Amino acid sequence: MRVMGVDPGLTRCGLSVIENGKGRQVIALDVDVVRTPADAPLQKRLLTISDTVEYWMDTHRPDVIAIERVFAQQNVSTVMGTAQAGGVIALAAARRDIDVHFHTPSEVKAAVTGNGRADKSQVTEMVTRILALQAKPTPADAADALALAICHCWRAPMLARMAAAEALAAEQRRKYQARLKAARA
Length: 185
Description:
The chain is an alpha/beta fold. 56% of the residues lie in helices and 19% in strands. The protein has one domain: Nucleotidyltransferase, domain 5, CATH 3.30.420.10.
């Protein structure tokens, strides 16, 4: 499975592509950070992010996109910008019929470091080790994008099993309710 990890942001948007191998083996294919000037109009910043992300999707052909879920912060404008960048990315994926999954920062940290409250330096260190990189990815947005992709590779099988179990339970519930309705009739 080829996963594109995205750490959305208006000023810096981290992008990565990894492939999973056997077990928990993952291989980094590409990583970069899209930068937009803070003084540029919002629509131009979103267009830059969109154009770059679409190029990455067309070039790397990911099977799935893993995007960091926006969470509450003190700075509302930061949350809005992050959400807008994430929306542009999800839309580009939808146009290409690529599945999108959102992961919270604590899910990503827990998957990569074992601690949902790990700091950025711990995440960067573990990403470097997991991917056997020669140097630490910088800035932190690049490491976060790689961490998102790793998190999804490792969580995807469990998420698929949970979805299958939920679908089976819903089907069994539907059949049971149909039998009850038929018995009452």
